[in-house]
Automatic annotation (TrEMBL):
Biased segments, Basic and acidic residues type: 143-157
Taxonomic superkingdom: Bacteria
Chain positions covered by the region annotation Disordered: 143-174, 887-914
Any single GO CC term annotated in Swiss-Prot or TrEMBL for this entry: cell envelope
Cofactor: [4Fe-4S] cluster
Gene Ontology BP annotations: anaerobic respiration
Protein name (database record): Formate dehydrogenase subunit alpha
A UniProt-annotated Pfam family: Molydop_binding
InterPro entries with a match to the protein in the record: Asp_de-COase-like_dom_sf, Formate_DH_Act, MoPterin_dinucl-bd_dom, Mopterin_OxRdtase
Length: 914
């Protein structure tokens, strides 16, 4: 969404979903996984909205929707692409919105070649790296040539290594977009609109039937529901969760939905947008102030070797000062962060202590770290609020990796499996590990629960809410703030007097938070630092009220620029709790939303180019000619006094360059992107590829899997053969994972509660009556599910909620698996972990794993015990002929073409499949 709109967060509030005329829920089970937020979907339905749930399973969301449409896991781009084709072909798109507010009229340079030209590839594919040189995707400049990317021109391989897609969470991709060539008639063959039209032309109703298992009647119902509830007077909203993100092309799933919503005018308006449903209370917060290897707070990129060696290089690579919008001021946001972290040690003469920051020299995500552990390159590991022994893909690999560590720190509420694998994990039972041989020293640190600590959390709609402490934590349990503050103090005491340059960042860090009467850091003092404050001048010591007050001369400091304003006037706005969120349409008196407390992002687009509401029914923000400002119930996501007819010189850059009809103020050209000339490492437009493991042949292109996916070809991470390959019949079924209301993620909270454990006491699998008959499965009996990585057992639930689908002319069965159980004696209930089945292959944009679809075998009865269990897994691997090359060849072999070559720039689409 960051590449499409300019920010990666949800475009609207949960409450605004009640204003939708149609709600499409895909890639998630909102009623079950987000039950509190789902009340607003229920409210929309009570007002007459149509609610449609598209999901492999019939769930609690399906039960309260107007219609459930079953889909094959991993085929969402086919369905969404066909909806785009339907909207364009039937001229259902909102033309005035599209021309004014998107890059539909922008002309792409003549070197670009589409998947239609190159049979599943875009121009610039490099088979040696498996990634794209994106230079041919560029816009055409009005004076000839290409529109450049500022700073160092990076290859897609380097961008993938640092998960560059994550870095557009608060500002779109950098581009010197001041002189783009446009054709507002949309007839030029190289306009984005014409490229889009041609690209999705093969995504037809028939293709949806063939690849998704959705009938023509179901597709027509969905397409008409969306089209008829979009336009001037009506709006449709989408909601998604990890069912979209956790795929090798998960980022492109979301991009496809973004394109559809933009074509229909469903962004920036009441009841529109895309709700990115975050599961845990502060998952949004953990990317805003990140727990990710490639980000600094506020989605500033982590510096990388080669592109961020100097402060000047780093800033030049983030944004161009000549591009439109507020991301042009990234230098100020960076300087303020460095001042907040290093105080007086951050000065102009040392580039604000920029060299204190580490440099990435490659990917350093969870799964790369796991491999590094196995290679004895990592000595110690902190596990905080995670349970990788159960919750990460390829659980066996995670546990084996931890056995290579010298020390492991686990902070959690309970003695989770990541703290006990060394004495009672599956590998202990199988004999693959022996406790007495494991050298890992495990430290368990009890953590405070959410009611035992104070602080903010940032939930799914970008909202910061304050949590007040209700009771003190028991015994030695600590909050994260207390733990890390004390740990920091002790490290600094140990290093006091050090003359080693590598210790200076730790010693120069500001670590002087206000303490309470118990000598513990006051959480509000941390929020004050995050918000930012003046360092010099008449306002010295006063909190900033807006990120526009941040200076790049060291006179202000702030720990996360997008959160500036949450502590304005030294007032904790995250603690606002006006009943019913206030009386206004925006319901803005509960908590505080980044950025600048805007409840609906891009809300300038809720008015037409002249500043008038598209309709009275969807009136939200409009231009008041008398007051000469934008008015409405929300904070304008636009320069408040910029008139609709303003046309400043775009070359001036920054906010001053935004025209009166540029509502996407964090994009370099002020427009939303249907076509992404930069920002996506695997293609400027979405294209369907099959999952890493799939018993289905890709009917759209010869290329089977996403060519730029991140591969981990290892003997402990083997993959099932795909359709048409020898051994594919050994793993004939598709499995997909999901969560339950009664349990929370890997179960670290819920499986220790006897009340929740009683409601869902055992690991189970959902299978259709047809699959049960085919494999001799009995309801409430046992089944063993086998993948190339592991075999687990589960109770059988035979149910019509899982429906066989006809795909490419044959029946495909899907197996549903909840992911909440783990093996151990400390929890009230235990069971085999479904994530043991899952392999590690990643989306190249954000380095997220493909854990929502895989291939498996299902047999009746319980799994073997002891050494017989890994023997069973090996037997299936041998029967399928698995090697590390299986599914790990970049380019699907073509008739008459070598396997390591992609089509050249002039090659035409191939006719033959594998």
């Amino acid at each position: 969404m960051g590449t499409s709109f300019g920010r990666g967060g949800a475009t609207q509030s949960l409450q605004d979903m009640a204003n939708a005329d149609c709600v499409i829920l895909m890639g998630g089970n909102m009623a079950e996984a987000h039950p509190v937020g789902f009340q607003w979907v229920s409210e929309a339905k009570s007002r007459g909205a149509r609610v449609i749930h598209v999901d492999p399973r019939f769930t609690r969301t399906s039960a309260v929707s107007d219609k459930h449409i079953a889909i094959r896991a991993g085929s969402d781009v086919v369905l969404l692409g066909a909806l785009i084709n339907y909207v364009i072909t039937n001229e259902k798109y909102f033309r005035e919105y599209v021309v004014a507010y998107t890059n539909a009229a922008t002309v792409v340079n003549e070197d670009f070649r589409d998947t239609e030209d190159l049979d599943g590839f875009f121009s610039g594919f490099d088979p040696e790296t498996g990634h794209y040189d994106q230079s041919s995707w560029a816009y055409e400049h009005a004076e000839g040539g290409h529109v450049d990317t500022p700073g160092h021109a990076e290859h897609g391989a380097d961008q993938s290594a640092r998960a560059a897609g994550d870095q557009h969470g608060a500002g779109g991709p950098a581009l010197d977009a001041s002189g783009v060539l446009r054709d507002d008639s949309l007839v030029h063959p190289r306009t984005v609109f014409q490229i889009l039209k041609r690209h999705f032309s093969r995504y037809t109703t028939e293709m949806v039937e063939q690849m998704c298992g959705i009938t023509a009647a179901e597709f027509e119902y969905l397409a008409e529901s969306i089209a008829n509830n979009s336009g001037r007077d009506r709006t449709t909203c989408f909601g998604y969760a990890t069912g979209w993100t956790q795929h090798t092309l998960g980022s492109q799933f979301i991009r496809t939905a973004a394109i559809l919503q933009l074509l229909l005018g469903n962004v920036g308006r009441p009841g529109s947008g895309i709700m990115a449903l975050r599961g845990h209370a502060s998952i949004q917060g953990s990317t805003d102030i990140p727990t990710l290897f490639n980000l600094l707070p506020g989605y500033l990129p982590m510096p990388s070797v080669g592109t961020g060696d100097t402060f000047a290089d780093y800033i030049a690579g983030i944004a161009s000062p000549t591009q439109k919008g507020f991301w042009a001021y990234a230098r100020a946001y960076t300087v303020n962060l460095l001042k907040a972290w290093f105080g007086d040690a951050a000065r102009a003469d040392n580039d604000w202590a920029y060299d204190y920051l580490p440099r990435l020299n490659g990917p350093a995500g969870t799964y790369q770290t796991t491999v590094a552990m196995l290679e004895d390159k990592v000595e110690g590991y902190f596990v905080l609020g995670q349970n990788p022994a159960v919750g990460s893909s390829n659980g066996r690999q995670q546990r084996m990796a931890m056995s290579h560590l010298k020390w492991l720190v686990v902070r959690d509420l309970n003695m989770i499996e990541s703290a006990t694998w060394w004495k009672e994990g599956p590998e202990i039972a199988s004999g693959e590990l022996r406790t007495e041989d494991i050298g890992t020293e495990v430290f368990y640190m009890p953590a405070a629960t959410h009611v035992e600590k104070a602080g903010s959390f940032t939930q799914t709609q970008r909202m910061l809410q304050w949590r007040h402490q209700a009771v003190n934590p028991p015994g030695q349990a600590q909050s994260e703030l207390d733990f890390f503050y004390e740990l920091g103090k002790r490290i600094r005491e140990r290093l006091a007097g050090s003359t080693d340059d590598r210790d200076r960042p730790l010693l120069d860090m500001t670590w002087d938070y206000r303490l309470d009467e118990h000598g513990k850091p006051d959480p509000e003092s941390v929020m004050s630092e995050i918000n930012g404050y003046y360092l010099t001048g008449p306002n010295a010591g006063k909190n900033l009220s807006s990120y526009t007050e941040m200076a790049d001369d060291g006179s202000t400091a702030g720990g996360c620029w997008i959160y500036t304003g949450v502590y304005a006037d030294a007032t904790n706005h995250a603690a606002r709790r006006v009943p019913n969120e206030g009386s206004g349409v925006a319901q803005s008196e509960w908590g505080w939303v980044w950025p600048a407390d805007r409840r609906i992002l891009y809300n300038r687009a809720s008015a037409d180019p002249d500043g008038k509401p598209w309709s009275e029914r969807k009136r939200y923000l409009w231009w008041d000619a008398d007051k000469k400002r934008w008015v409405g119930p929300d904070v304008p996501d636009f320069p408040v006094d910029r008139a609709p007819d303003a046309r400043p010189d775009p070359a001036v850059g920054g906010a001053a360059a935004l025209a009166g009809d540029d509502p996407f103020i964090m994009q370099s050209d002020g427009k939303a992107w249907l076509f992404a000339p930069t920002g996506m490492v695997d293609g400027p437009l979405p294209a369907h590829y099959e999952p890493q493991e799939s018993p289905v042949d890709n009917a759209l292109y010869t290329q089977q899997q996403a060519p730029a996916r991140v591969l981990f070809p290892r003997k402990d991470n083997l993959d099932a053969p795909s359709a048409g390959e020898p051994g594919a019949e050994v793993y004939p079924y598709v499995f997909t994972t999901y969560r339950l209301t009664e349990h929370h993620t890997a179960g670290g909270m819920s499986r220790w509660s006897p009340y929740l454990a009683e409601l869902q006491p055992e690991m189970f699998c959902e299978v259709s009556p047809e699959l049960a008959a085919e494999r001799g499965l009995v309801n409430e009996g046992w089944a063993t599910i086998i993948s190339p990585r592991a075999a687990i057992e589960a109770r059988v639930l035979v149910t019509d909620r899982m429906r066989p689908l006809t795909i490419n002319g044959r029946i495909v069965h899907q197996v549903g698996l909840p992911y909440h159980w783990g093996v151990g004696s400390d929890a009230v209930v235990s069971g085999d972990a479904v994530n043991d089945l899952i392999g590690v292959t990643l989306d190249p944009n954000v380095q997220i794993q493909e854990s929502k679809v895989g291939s498996c075998e299902v047999v009746a009865g319980r799994r073997p015990q002891g050494a017989a269990l890994p023997a069973l897994v090996r037997d299936y691997q041998q029967r399928a002929g698995l090697t590390v090359e299986t599914d790990n060849i970049r380019v699907t072999p073509r008739t008459g073409a070598p396997t390591d070559e992609a089509p050249g720039a002039g090659e035409q689409p191939g006719e033959g499949h594998r």
